[in-house]
Amino acid sequence: MGHFIPLSVPNFQGRELAYVTDAVSQGWVSSGGEYVSRFEKQVAAYTKMPGAVACQTGTAGLHLAMLLCGVRTGDLVIAPTLTFIAAVNPIRYVGAEPVFMDCDQSLCLDPEKLKSFCHEECRFDDGILIHRATGRRVRAVVVVHVFGNMAGMEAIVDIAVKYGLLIIEDATEALGTYYTGGRLAGRMAGSLGHVGVFSFNGNKIITTGGGGMLVSGDENTLRKAKYLSTQAKDDELYYIHEEVGYNYRMTNVQAAIGVAQLEQLESFIRVKERNFALYCEIIGTDGPLRMLPFREDTRSNHWFYSLYLDLEEIGLDRDALIQELEQRGIQGRPIWGLIHEQKPYRGSFAYHIERAFHYFERVVNLPCSTSLSEKDVEKVAYTVLEFAGR
Ligand SMILES: Cc1ncc(COP(=O)(O)O)c(C=O)c1O
């Protein structure tokens, strides 16, 4: 059968061990230490932002983002249903409620439906957006760049400005993705909202084991993020606290791995692009069995690959394909169960969800690790074609 081909595993071929050894031998293993600030500065520079705040996880960063955007009990926050649940749970952490939004063909939040929700379901009074049916304030929108593919940010930014919404960019999957054309040319995913958050979880394009990073163009927001993530200390000597803080700071050991990983990010992206191109060449990009593209006018980080099955045309079963792959030692995965159908969110407001169901039933993620060889990609792609009888 050959070796097992997992979906997405980390790649440590750089200076990870050297930097971790350095951090440990200096005795800086906790949240003090130079690797944390070095990693922050480097991510800020890479994303062209004035600063960054390193966190324990992407989820912690998203929790802080809610607090920094002033989301509070009783507020509504618009969020996608097609996403990993960690993009949504922080809304509840602060006592607010999600309003679930559909996706467009990019699998990211649909700007058209976002606009019609704001226009048709809400009223806009004195710069405040109120959901008519519940009388609640809609304070923010969480935009996820699904699988490293940029959401339609030109339209989303315009809608957010028009309706006074703060954008929380869940760029956990999209470090390295940026616009190459249009009015946002040169702008990185994560840098387009009020707050952006990256994740360095084990399956992400670069990893620190577990970790996250918050970026913002606003210095006060960055200062507050660091304050809240380090137990809200107003006096370091006497331990005075004027707010409830969190223990969300990244450790120096995590950051040491992060610095080494960031050095390799662009080369990881080149491998991801090359492997995606090979999948596209073998499986194709149109027809009933095809690889879903990344947005035009962007350089995507090509983090996760999506195979689309036209069920009607091809008479294929998604789960049978996943089982077949598994039997051949290949890990495939359906996209996440839609969040508005998960138990904690069944009572939440969901706005005309249609496409998300469509893609949920038809998309299978294929192996995308940067350690994949051409042979591995060929094996996966030809297994898919064989299963489909092509
Ligand atoms: C879309 C999305 N949001 C949030 C997260 C949470 O990040 P973390 O695992 O670092 O908490 C992840 C990844 O795990 C994710 O894919």
UniProtKB/TrEMBL annotation:
Coiled-coil segments: none
SUPFAM superfamilies from the UniProt entry: PLP-dependent transferases
Active site: 204
GO biological process, one term: polysaccharide biosynthetic process
GO molecular function annotations of the record: pyridoxal phosphate binding; transaminase activity
Keywords recorded for this protein, A-Z: Aminotransferase, Pyridoxal phosphate, Transferase
Positions of modified residues (N6-(pyridoxal phosphate)lysine): 204
Pfam families cross-referenced by the UniProt entry: DegT_DnrJ_EryC1
UniProt keyword annotation of rRNA-binding present: no
Sequence similarity: Belongs to the DegT/DnrJ/EryC1 family.
Protein name: Aminotransferase DegT
Organism: Formimonas warabiya
